[in-house]
Amino acid sequence: MGGHDRRTVRDLRRSNRAAVLRLLYFEGPLSRQELGPATGLSSGSISNVVTELLAEGVLEEAGSVGSDGGRPRTLLRVARQSACLVGVDVGETRVRVELFDLMLTEVARSEQPLDDGGHDVSLVVRLIEKGLAAVLAQVGESTGPLLGVGVGVPGIVERRSHGGALVHGQTVGWDAVPLEEMLRESAGLADGDGSPGGAVGALAGRHRARSVPLLIGNGAKTLGQAEMWFGAGRGARDAVIALIGSGVGACVVTGGEPYGGASSGAGEWGHTVLAVGGRACRCGARGCLEAYVGAGGVIARWREAGGEPGSGDEESALAELLATGRGEGARARIAAAVLEETAEYLGAGIADLVNLFNPERIVIGGWAGLLLGPQLLPAVRTATDAYALRYPAARTAVELCRLGPDAVTVGAATLPLRRFLDAGGSPPPGVALSV
Ligand SMILES: [Zn+2]
User: What global pTM score does this model have?
Assistant: First the structure.
């Protein structure tokens, strides 16, 4: 009985702290008086929680506002420098590591190119370690404690109760890769004898790295979470955030929460079939949407149509396609036709999302999506209307992401951030979990 009561009291305290912290995080600064009605907590509970969080340094005062005839009200906000978070984007052309303050403003970043499309897992692990060391060296001792490291990956992330997360990244040849275990061993984020040197060793010392949570999630889903919290998805309950880069993925949000399906594999929009028996896809199937609108697919179609992309990377080839399509002459006509076709394929893929999920908003992001978007969006909308059912299509807005092409790192950092907010701002426990 006693144990049960204690647990209940502790849970209640944590949920009160989480309610106050979450509200101040997303809506702050606010006064104590405003926190009551918005959280449904009594003024006594608000006062206790705020006193605790101020003493812990998680909150800070942010000036005051006058109230009608009464005493001025002190405003409260989350103290952005009280802690830091790391987000890692394992892309197909590079590994990017960013360190953020608690409000997810970038403090330091490191980017390492990946020449082999991310196939070599041990190289990816080494680059993440190198990136972590680089960002920590940039910030020195100036940051608050590290709340966790979030990693966004191209693939389905399987959560296991023991042994850490496995990544099934079929398009990059990752077959049940034990990424979490490998990262813990390599980056000194876990128990182990090998004491890591350099900045990662410093991380282990300064932040008691054995207890730094390492959380791994699908890149498109983490991007979706970031856009829902801070970007174009804000305020929506039912939305789809589409990530278009070398690969194509999506985060389906229903009732305000990302939808994972039975085993976290939902939202693999890039591998829905656009043409039976169509173009070969990296996943091994034929006719997938990704083979038509992923950066590689668009460039391959341009080449097959007689366009001659330069020898640069995918990003410069796609920029060249857009610029060529705005010009005049035979080469411009070829490029314009490829772009027109791309808009129609993309519109058809988006129409499938409209018909399946009836979202209020579809948000297009990813580096290729944001490169193509400004020029193609009107044609994409027209194609969506032509392929989708009229009633839901008329109620779906199609927009571009607002957090920019690098938002997967922000998304990855939302993994440990979400954990921190849910725990009511308590420091992470010593047991690391994957999501
Ligand atoms: Zn495929």
Answer: 0.87
